[in-house]
Design a protein that fits this description.
Layout lengths: L4 H12 L14 H23 L4 E3 L4 E3 L8 H12 L3 H14 L7 E3 H19 L2 H14 L13 E3 L5 E2 L2 E2 L1 H4 L3 H11 L3 H15 L10 E3 L5 E3 L1 E2 L6 H14 L2 H17 L1 E4 L2 E4 L1 E3 L5 E3 L1 E3 L5 H7 L3 H18 L5 E3 L4 E4 L7 H13 L3 H17 L23 H14 L9 E3 L5 E3 L3
Antiparallel strand pairs: 1-2, 3-4, 4-5, 6-7, 7-8, 9-12, 10-11, 12-13, 14-15, 15-16, 17-18
Bound molecules: 1-deoxymannojirimycin (DMJ).
């Protein structure tokens, strides 16, 4: 495997020179200057969207064309980006964005949408936008959307179907996974509290409990579950995509709502994950895959999506494990100067080489810095941001990479880049724009506040 040059160079220096004369310590990070760079680059991406894709879901950052997920726009990028604009103090842009959402966002559409994505991006974005701006139209739209999503929960188990038609309420998609069945309580719960309609909280909580109750005897969940029968269709367990935010919402449900059932479910789940998924290998901490019934290791893979876990560990009080895992994530990043989607950490070989501009590793850096105040996390953030700009910036915005090995760009800029990736970079270097203890982030980095 071809390692990144700088990484090679550092290793070579470390081997050849005595410790006292080893490489100079990294220069201190100028957080204010970094924050200004992050803001300028965020604006570059936002202005690209504004110029080439205004009113559509997303910008294609290489062809400079708009893209709509379902053939008609649900304003994915404007809703996802709104709270980042507000946090960065970009008031003119935020007002223009809000005016677009107020006047154009309409959910009365004959389209089958993916409940998980619409919930975390749109419902989460509208609620966060409402709490930050107090614009009542945003809450009205959130309630309309939440109501249209409710039929998804009408399965025999209470586990939601994956797709629902926004106009007719018709559902489909019986084989789901814990991330999709268990990542609803923050948004639906907040909606329930803000509208005074407990049905939203109740349905999402039932789905979360229904997922938890089907855990195996050793406390793990699998990667596929049938929402009509409750039977597992895939017994592979991990903290990765398809399960990831199920863990996140167990803890955050406790944090945001003080719901003791969530705390109980979290405690049982995290101890099983730490026992069966954590993998101490050559002094490094990773989290791999295991069979949910036997605990047998099935894969030694960890990737860009898993990299949220240090942040969650830190937020839930386990800073020690969080710091070790974050070091592993950063090692993964430095192999090629940008992280791959999936890495076999025992072989140190890439299993999937794309980079979708994901935020998780930055999110964890932000949490680790918040809890430790260790400047090394600012240094990590600076390295990652430098690489991110170097390889992913395009004329019109930011482009995903087809391969972190070749660095060839791909014509995709998902809305989470503006909701999450830039937001976590910003908050790492400009934490004063946030009252950390008053806020819980949903899995799309939308800020929810307990105002009830
Ligand atoms: C986001 O939509 C959310 O963070 C989700 O939980 C996982 N995937 C993307 C970002 O990578």
């Amino acid at each position: 495997m071809k390692m990144r040059f700088a990484f090679h160079a550092i290793c070579a220096i470390a081997l050849l020179v005595p410790a006292a004369a080893s490489a100079a310590p990294p220069s201190p990070v100028d957080s204010a200057a970094m924050a200004a760079r992050v803001k300028a680059e965020f604006l570059h991406a936002w202005n690209g969207y504004r110029q080439y894709a205004w009113g559509h879901d997303e910008l294609k950052p290489l062809s400079k064309k708009p893209f709509d997920w379902y053939g008609q726009s649900l304003l994915m990028t404007p809703v996802d980006a709104l709270d980042t604009l507000v946090l960065m103090g970009l008031n003119r842009e935020a007002d223009e964005d809000r005016a677009l959402i107020d006047s154009k966002l309409d959910f009365d559409k004959d389209i089958d949408v993916k409940v998980f994505e619409i919930n975390i991006r749109l419902l989460g974005g509208l609620l966060s936008g409402y709490q930050l701006t107090h614009d009542p139209v945003l809450l009205k739209k959130a309630e309309d959307l939440g109501t249209r999503l409710l039929p998804a929960f009408d399965s025999p188990t209470g586990l939601p179907y994956r797709f629902v038609n926004l106009r007719t309420g018709k559902v489909h998609g019986t084989v789901s996974n814990p991330a999709e069945t268990g990542t609803l309580i923050l948004e639906f719960g907040t909606l329930g509290k803000l509208t005074g309609k407990p049905v939203f909280y109740a349905k999402a909580k039932r789905a979360l409990i229904a997922t938890f109750e089907r855990r195996s005897k050793i406390g793990l969940v699998g990667a596929g579950i049938n929402v009509e029968t409750g039977a597992w269709t895939d017994t592979d367990s991990s903290i990765s995509g398809g399960i990831d935010s199920y863990y996140e919402y167990l803890w955050k449900c406790w944090r945001l709502f003080g719901d003791k059932d969530c705390l109980r479910m979290w405690k049982a789940s995290i101890s099983a994950a730490n026992r069966y998924l954590a993998d101490d290998f050559h002094g490094e901490l990773w989290y791999g895959h295991a069979d949910m019934n036997t605990g047998r290791r099935t894969a030694t893979e960890y990737g860009a999506l898993d990299a949220f876990f240090p942040g969650l560990l830190a937020l839930s009080g386990d800073v020690k494990r969080a710091a070790r895992l974050q070091d592993s994530s950063f090692r993964m990043w430095n192999l090629y100067g940008i992280e791959p989607e999936v890495l076999d950490y025992r072989a140190m070989k890439i299993a999937y080489d794309g980079y979708a501009l994901r935020p998780e590793i930055v999110e964890s850096t932000f949490y680790l810095h918040h809890y430790t105040h260790d400047p090394k996390y600012l240094g990590m953030g600076r390295t990652m941001f430098d690489d991110f700009v170097k390889y992913c910036r395009s004329d019109a915005g930011y482009a995903a990479l087809k391969s972190v090995v070749t660095k060839q760009q791909k014509d995709d800029m998902e809305s989470f880049v503006l909701a999450e990736t830039f937001k976590y970079y910003w908050l790492l270097f400009h934490p004063q724009s946030l009252d950390f203890n008053a806020v819980t982030f949903n899995t799309e980095a939308h800020l929810l506040r307990r105002t009830w």
